[in-house]
Each structure stands twice: as structure tokens, then as C-alpha cells.
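R.M. (postdoc): so does anyone remember the format we settled on? I'll just put the C-alpha cells first.
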């Protein structure tokens, strides 16, 4: 039997997110006695791309922008993962997120590997025309490092369907006119009128809701009347809240980058969304809500917490304040290793990110298939197919955790890693 003394240490200069994902990986790899050679392969990324490129601003000045794309592993298929525009984007953040994408796509049973990337900017400081030029120039600079059968980007933090439309148009324009339509699936998350698929906009949030509902069914409880709070009220946070409210749950708190608000009687999701749209993207000053201190948000007395913003939000500094029974990770890596230990010791259950928010990449897979095969899928069939895949993933993770006596994150990682391990064992290593 393979011993457990072959862990590869985390380099001291790697970010907290990289340290988290590698520790999560090593814990699961130990449990399944992962082949040491495959462990070495999966502990590193395949490719790390840093691009510095010039873009002319509206005032005529040229600014040098930095973009990143990290490709972790493609044993199961083309690289897949989002592009985010945020000041926290760097090579280590992209590495961690790319690794999580590998496990997420594997767990869902998709023919994809993991990648991630983005541009290190605050998009609020740029005009729409400047963002378009930044996006198109970044796409051109990436060149053949992306492609519909090689690496397929998608929306992430501060990017959306419009961003994907710019990328697709730029990439397709670099091909000969007679070939351009064959490259439409270079990205997913496009507008419906430009090759997108119905339901992709809500697929991540719906997946968060559905995994919560499946968890509640396992506990033999109803979501009706259950209280929940959401960190981040962008695409994921909004749609998760929308479907939770439809099920009878009550949203009592929301936090974004600008404010934290609370209302014990409940916040109306649609009204809040309208307010955010008309308030420069912020929940601040929403009618009849109470502003609370940022550090008190996770301590709100509620049943469910949905962190749907950035990584490393629940840590040793605040995990002990949490009164909720369930954390449903709508974001990637919102709970760090130390925070998770405290939560598990306190009996808080976690639906891990690679399961909870996988609805987005599953919806992206459907869009990729639609473009690739020249088909047209409608909302009802997209949701039905999404439910089928997510239910299968959830039940496998839940059953594995019970059978093996491990937490749900370790169970999800074990299942994801085993699928990739099997592929390597069957194919061997070239040459």
C-alpha cells in the first residue's frame, strides 16, 4: 500500500488560495492513496501565461494592462474556466482557481480540464469602450492559447455575456471568413442572440439553490421559512436568492463590497436587485434595511449562509461567529482550511464549491455542445439536464461522505481525483 508521506510541500511564496487548494487536494489524495506519480502531475499546473499588452484609453493615453491565463490539467478534455476582471487577479489566484476548476469539471463528469484567468484591473475605473478595447486586445494577445477544442473561457467576477461576445468576435475575426462560424464555441456564457444558451445566466445560482434543496431533503426538512444571508449580490448571489425565495426561504442579510445590510423580516429579492441596478451595483441604502458592520455579517443568526463573492472570506478570524447550520459555497474558495476546521468542529455543514457552484460550468458545457453541434436548446430542457447532472453529483458526494466517514469537501475531491487518476492509469504517460 502507498504510504502517506509523499505530500508535496506548498512553496512559501504561494498565495493563501493556492495553499488552501493544495491542502484540500493532499487531504483527499491521502484518503484514496493516490498514485504518487499522478499526485506529482496534479500538484502543478501545465501552463501559466502572463501577458502585458498596451491599450489606448479614451483620452489618448496608452496604458499597459496585465492579463493571466493558467491551465492546470487537461487529462479529461479541453481546459475550461472563467475570466475575471479584478484588482486581486494575479498568477497565484489564477493557479488556485484553475485547480478548483479541474476538480469541479471532473466531479460533474464533464469532458473538461481546469483553467482560469483574468485581467488585473478595477473595471469601474474604465469606460465601456475602454473595457471593450482591453478585452479585445487581451483576446488577440492570448492567440491560440485559447480555442474551442483547447481552452474555453467563460464569465466570472466582473465579466458577463457582453465580455464573452467581444472575445468570441475578436477570436473569430482572426480566422478565415469561411472558417469563422466553426469557432463560435471558443467561449461560453455568450448572449443568447450571439450563440449563447437559454438559462446559462442563472445556471450557477440555480445550482447553488438546488444543492441546498437536495441537502434539505436529506435532512428531511423544508426550506420554507428558513433564513439565509448572501455575501455578494452579483449574478450568482441574485439568482441563488431568487430561487431560494421562490422555495419559501427568507433573505435577511446581504453583503457586497460597499455595504452590509440586514432586515429580520426579510429583504425582497427582486426589489433589491432593482435597487442594485440603479445604485451603481451596490446594496447600500436599500429601503427599510439596517446597515451593519462588515465584521458582524457572518455572525447574523440565520439557517444558511451563501458566500457568493471572492475567496478566503470565512477564516479563523470569523468562523467562530457563524450560527448557521449550512454553508453553501457559491463562490470559489470562500472558506479557507483553518476556517473550515472551526466550522466542522462546531457542527456546521458545508456544500463545497466544486459541487455547489458547478451549475455554471455544466450550463457552459451545454452551450458548448449547442454551438459545436449546431443545435438550439431551450430553457426547460437546459434546466432539466442541469438538475439531472447536479443531482447525480450531489448524491455521489453525499453517499461517499457517509460511507467513508469524511467531510463533504474531502468526499467531492476524492471522487474528482479518482476520475482523473483512472484516465492516467488507462492511458499511461507519454512517451
Amino acid at each position: 500500500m502507498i504510504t502517506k508521506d509523499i505530500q508535496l510541500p506548498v512553496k512559501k511564496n504561494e498565495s493563501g488560495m493556492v495553499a488552501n487548494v493544495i491542502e484540500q487536494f493532499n487531504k483527499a489524495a491521502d484518503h484514496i492513496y493516490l498514485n504518487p506519480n499522478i499526485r506529482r502531475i496534479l500538484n502543478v499546473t501545465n501552463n501559466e501565461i502572463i501577458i502585458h499588452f498596451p491599450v489606448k484609453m479614451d483620452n489618448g493615453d496608452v496604458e499597459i494592462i496585465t492579463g493571466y491565463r493558467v491551465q492546470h490539467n487537461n487529462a479529461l478534455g479541453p481546459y475550461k474556466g472563467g475570466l475575471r476582471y479584478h484588482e486581486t487577479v494575479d498568477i497565484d489566484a489564477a493557479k488556485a482557481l484553475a485547480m478548483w476548476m479541474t476538480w469541479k469539471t471532473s466531479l460533474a463528469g464533464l469532458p473538461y480540464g481546469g483553467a482560469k484567468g483574468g485581467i488585473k484591473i478595477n473595471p469601474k475605473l474604465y469606460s465601456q469602450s475602454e473595457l471593450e478595447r482591453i478585452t479585445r486586445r487581451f483576446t488577440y494577445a492570448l492567440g491560440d492559447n485559447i480555442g474551442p477544442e483547447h481552452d474555453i473561457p467563460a464569465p466570472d467576477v466582473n465579466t458577463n455575456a457582453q465580455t464573452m461576445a467581444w472575445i468570441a468576435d475578436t477570436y473569430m475575426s482572426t480566422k478565415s471568413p469561411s472558417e469563422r462560424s466553426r469557432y463560435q464555441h471558443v467561449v461560453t456564457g455568450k448572449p443568447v442572440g450571439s450563440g449563447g444558451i437559454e438559462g446559462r445566466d442563472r445556471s450557477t445560482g440555480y445550482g447553488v439553490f438546488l444543492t441546498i434543496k437536495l441537502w434539505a431533503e436529506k435532512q428531511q426538512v423544508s426550506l420554507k421559512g428558513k433564513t439565509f444571508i448572501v455575501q455578494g449580490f452579483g449574478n450568482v448571489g441574485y439568482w441563488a436568492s431568487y430561487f431560494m425565495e421562490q422555495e419559501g426561504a427568507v433573505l435577511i442579510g446581504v453583503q457586497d463590497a460597499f455595504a452590509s445590510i440586514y432586515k429580520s423580516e426579510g429583504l425582497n429579492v427582486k426589489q433589491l436587485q432593482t435597487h442594485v441596478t440603479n445604485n451603481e451595483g451596490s446594496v447600500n441604502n436599500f429601503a427599510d434595511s439596517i446597515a451593519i458592520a462588515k465584521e458582524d455579517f457572518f455572525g447574523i443568526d440565520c439557517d444558511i449562509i451563501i458566500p457568493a463573492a471572492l475567496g478566503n472570506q470565512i477564516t479563523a478570524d470569523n468562523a467562530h461567529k457563524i450560527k448557521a447550520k449550512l454553508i453553501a459555497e457559491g463562490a470559489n474558495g470562500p472558506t479557507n482550511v483553518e476556517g473550515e476546521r472551526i466550522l466542522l468542529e462546531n457542527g456546521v455543514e458545508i456544500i463545497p464549491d466544486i459541487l455547489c457552484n458547478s451549475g455554471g460550468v455544466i450550463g457552459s458545457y451545454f452551450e458548448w455542445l449547442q454551438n459545436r453541434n449546431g443545435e438550439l436548446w431551450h430553457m426547460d430542457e437546459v434546466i432539466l439536464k442541469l438538475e439531472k447532472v447536479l443531482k447525480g453529483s450531489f448524491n455521489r458526494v453525499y453517499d461517499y461522505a457517509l460511507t467513508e466517514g469524511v467531510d463533504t469537501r474531502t468526499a467531492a475531491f476524492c471522487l474528482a481525483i479518482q476520475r482523473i487518476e483512472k484516465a492516467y492509469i488507462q492511458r499511461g504517460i507519454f512517451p
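R.M.: ...and that's the designed sequence above, right after the C-alpha cells. Also worth knowing: Residues 28 and 410 are 5 Å apart (CA to CA). The first helix runs from residue 16 to 31.
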